[in-house]
Every structure is written in structure tokens, then in C-alpha cells.
Amino acid sequence: MTNDPLFIVMALVMFAVVGVLLFGIGSFAKGGDFSRKWSNKAMQWRIAAQFVAVVLILLFAYFRQGT
């Protein structure tokens, strides 16, 4: 399974979701001007990244159901 290109892309996107989530939480914690500028945008990026991750997970499950 780890040699499957779709699995690798799916895993990378899931790690990106975690990275964006941590950035968003960090921007909330930092507060001030930085938080006002980046917190909402980071959470919007997280939603988009999660959407891509869910679509890739569904595609992976659909294409690999017979194997």
C-alpha cells in the first residue's frame, strides 16, 4: 500500500491539514495583529485542505475496494 501513488498523495495532504491546523492554532495563541491577520485565513485553508483530503480518501477507497 505504501508504494501506491494515491496513498502517498493522500498521506501528504493529511499531513498538510495537520500543519495548517497547527499554524491556525498558533496564530490564535499568539494574538494581536498577527492573529487578526492570519487566524481566519488559516482556518479557511484548513477547511479547503480537509475537503481535498476527504475526496482523496474516498477516491482511494473506491479504486482500491477490489484489491
TrEMBL record:
InterPro entries: Hypoxia_induced_domain (IPR007667). It holds the Pfam family HIG_1_N. Keywords: Membrane, Transmembrane, Transmembrane helix. Residues 1-67 form the HIG1 domain. It comes from the Bacteria. PROSITE patterns: HIG1. The chain crosses the membrane at residues 6-25, 45-63. This is HIG1 domain-containing protein. It comes from Sagittula marina.
